[in-house]
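Troubleshooting log. The previous structure file for this entry was overwritten by mistake, so regenerating from the original sequence record. Sequence copied from the archived sheet and checked twice against the printout by T.R.
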Amino acid sequence: MLGSSSFPALLPEFEAMWGLSHTEAGWISGIFFGGYVAAVPVLVGSTDRVDPRRIYLVSLVVGGVAALAYALLAQGFWSALAFRALAGIGLAGTYMPGLKLLTDRTDGPMQGRYVAFYTAAFSLGTALSFAFTGEIAALFDWRIAFAAGAAGSAISYLLILAFVARGPAQPEAGVARRFPDFRPVLRNRAAMAFVLGYAGHVWELFALRAWLVAFLIYAAAASGSGSGIVQANWLTAAITLASSVASIYGAEVAARADRRRVIGGVMVVSVVLAAATGFSPGLPLAVVVALCFAYHMAIMADSAALTGGAVLAAVPSQKGATLAVHTILGFGGGFLGPLAVGAVMDFAGGEGSKLAWGLAFLTMGLGSAAALAAIRRL
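Regenerated output below.
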């Protein structure tokens, strides 16, 4: 995950350097998850018949190459779009296949806790990526920051190679089964409730992470206490890191109570905090930052609970296919969320407008509102 946040960490710099509109910046932020979604049906769906370890290792190579290619060759909108899409493909072969790798090798009552820690590690990696990218770019430049992000793929490759054993031989699938059949998953109403809830959750989460650095810089200027890109990245990293605790705690509470009711309550709080945070610039910066903390924690509080719910509701023989649908629709929301926020900001006057930021955060909050409707309907 070391290079996962490289573009949003430096988004204001790329907008200025390449003359990007907010919509174009939203495309580059979102296409990372667009590449992810495009690769998931094959990479994640295949984990029911191919050892996830093999998929994981190859995908780490793809992610490392994407980071190096961006560092060496990116020159504007189209090249950045292509290399971030390739990076998303690399992530597609690591995140959910990694979860399958974990759940294949664990069982019993502790498995839900392992899943919670695994999903929280996604936020840990994202937080590290923000701080790491900001510091390396300040010390050297953005190209060195992207190249250094490839080190994460190399380290992960060595860890998996050394400490995760090969899985048992998988039965050969006939030609007709080379592409996974998702129809049984779509008919599983319990699983699909959590899957659609996750789509709204990811829309909101990745839209916030894509635009949080730019928002904090604007809020600092509006409060009269200027903040540079490095400071904004450290704040974003701290917010992201602290919120991983909310994911673990939310999963523990959901496992001991009515999962649907817990998730629904969290989503209501998220919508309220989206509105409060978006219209907060002009208040003291400490208040704005506190609202950002609270909002991000509210979003993360149902993350592991949603993924855990999908895993528990899946038919055992369709676990890989269920995780594939879960991540296709979920990260489809991650692709559309940052793009929608960028388009709203362009329409409402750009990042110098308080109204634009308010509407942008309301657009983020639509994710939880739609997720809540799906959970209650199914």
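The chain has a mean pLDDT of 87. Archived copy saved in two places this time.
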